[in-house]
Design goal:
heterodimer, A: about 0% strand, globular, B: alpha+beta, 7 helices, 8 strands, extended
Chain lengths: ~180, ~270
């Protein structure tokens, strides 16, 4: 069976808003792995990642009518849904605050391949490019993006000023960009 | 406001990563409307995030697609069943329903929803994974339902494009012409960009060695708007971009198209508006 080819995101979005089957099929085939990867990395284990991915697709289905392309790309929107859903679950399992802090302290002192709870993700296929990021940047992206810390929380946990957190975050992303070039 | 400084402040990164506060989000969206350089910066950061996500992609287990497909079909059943879910129990739908869905499923879901009403919350966290059905966002769905009712015509099949929510996308029915009067096709025109999407899905294959070609009549003259290749199983194909036209027509031409339409080979045609 031929998979439809979409010429542009505009076309894909239009069909998705119409709840077109082929469009959703296309979405799953092409985007589910990226979403699953983010969910996996947030949860740090596989057993509930499938449930979260299902919830994410349902949310995409329901939210599609209100998705506004002027606010950002479809992909970004979906990634944020996936990340938020995974973080909701992470938090609902009431991860202890000191559990998190332990992870972070260990992350901060992390050697590559160090065998600590928060470092499982290193062994499940994090690609080289991320590993190549400077330690402090990787920790920051990890905390903010994958563990759902707000900038205020990061500032408090790491004991650095909020302004520094913001600057460092920007530098982390610049670093990420250069790694991809 | 120095836009350069703003762009360098880190807020773009925070926004793209979903880390900006609500007021920051509002602010940046307002600014994006005014400053194309800000829009460009946002886009650039989005590309970075996309690459990062792709680098870390993990294929989900193969059986999951089917499970998710079934969940989405469940959503469809809810969409197509009665308009108001809030009301308890089951009463006949107000509009003539497509009637092909499983009302037992819809009814039992409605009852489940009502019985779980106390536990429902809007969007945010505290969502109980074990009661995902109970976690339906009642109010949001009610709003979506109302909007659907306001917008909906009695449309047909799942393959039809529901573009009511995109005010600038014009749908033009192309009716069969002459000996082809039983044929029909649909054209979708994004007036703001000029993009045209043509759907000849119900039409037969063009005769061997020939193809369908779309024409836009502009100032009374036919202008080539693209060739439609029906060989793939495509619902809809993007044609050329046309800013304005009085009429659209599809003719059968030799493969590869021709510079001017063969008028006695016109199959379908229609006017915008």
């Amino acid at each position: 069976m031929n998979t439809p080819i979409f010429h542009s995101e505009t076309e894909l979005v239009a069909l998705l808003k119409g709840k077109d089957d082929k469009a959703f099929n296309y979405l799953y085939d092409n985007y589910s792995a990226a979403l699953y990867g983010v969910i996996f990395k947030v949860l740090d284990k596989e057993d509930l990642a499938g449930d979260v991915l299902q919830e994410v697709f349902v949310k995409i289905w329901r939210g599609m009518e209100q998705y506004d392309p002027a606010k950002g790309r479809l992909y970004t929107w979906m990634l944020n849904i996936a990340r938020n859903a995974a973080i909701d679950l992470l938090r609902s399992r009431s991860f202890q605050k000191d559990q998190k802090t332990t992870d972070i302290e260990q992350n901060a002192n992390l050697q590559e391949n160090h065998n600590t709870p928060g470092a499982n993700t290193d062994t499940i296929g994090l690609k080289k490019s991320v590993m190549n990021l400077k330690q402090e940047f990787r920790v920051l992206i990890d905390m903010a993006y994958f563990q759902g810390y707000t900038q205020e929380e990061i500032s408090k946990t790491l004991g650095i000023p909020l302004g520094t957190v913001k600057t460092r975050m920007r530098n982390a992303i610049l670093e990420l960009k250069s790694v991809f070039k | 406001m120095n836009i350069e400084e703003y762009i360098s402040s880190g807020i773009v990164e925070a926004y793209v990563l979903g880390l900006a506060t609500e007021s920051e989000v509002r602010e940046i969206r307002q600014m994006m409307e005014q400053y194309p350089e800000l829009r460009a910066a946002v886009q650039e950061q989005e590309e970075v995030l996309v690459k990062y996500a792709q680098q870390n992609a993990i294929a989900p287990p193969p059986g999951l697609k089917q499970t998710i497909w079934e969940a989405l079909n469940g959503e469809k059943a809810i969409d197509e069943a009665q308009p108001t879910i809030i009301e308890p129990a089951f009463h006949a739908p107000r509009q003539q329903a497509p009637a092909k869905r499983n009302y037992a499923l819809a009814a039992s879901l409605a009852l489940l929803i009502v019985s779980a009403a106390a536990n429902m919350w809007l969007l945010n966290s505290n969502h109980n994974m074990n009661n995902r059905i109970a976690g339906l966002n009642l109010q949001q769905r009610a709003i979506i339902k109302e909007k659907n009712e306001a917008l909906a015509a009695a449309e047909n099949s799942a393959a039809a494009l529901r573009v009511m929510s995109l005010p600038k996308l014009l749908k033009i029915d192309l009716a069969g012409v002459g000996p082809h009067s039983s044929q029909s096709a649909m054209l979708y025109w994004d007036k703001s960009s000029g993009d045209i999407f043509l759907d000849l899905n119900t039409m037969p294959q063009a005769p061997a060695g020939k193809q369908y070609q779309l024409w836009a009549i502009i100032d009374g003259k036919p202008v080539d708007a693209g060739i439609y290749d029906l060989s793939g199983a495509r619902a809809m194909i993007k044609m050329k971009t046309i800013a304005r036209a009085e009429m659209f027509a599809v003719t059968i031409e030799k493969a590869g198209g021709s510079p001017a339409p063969t008028l006695d080979q016109m199959v379908v045609a229609g006017k915008p508006g």
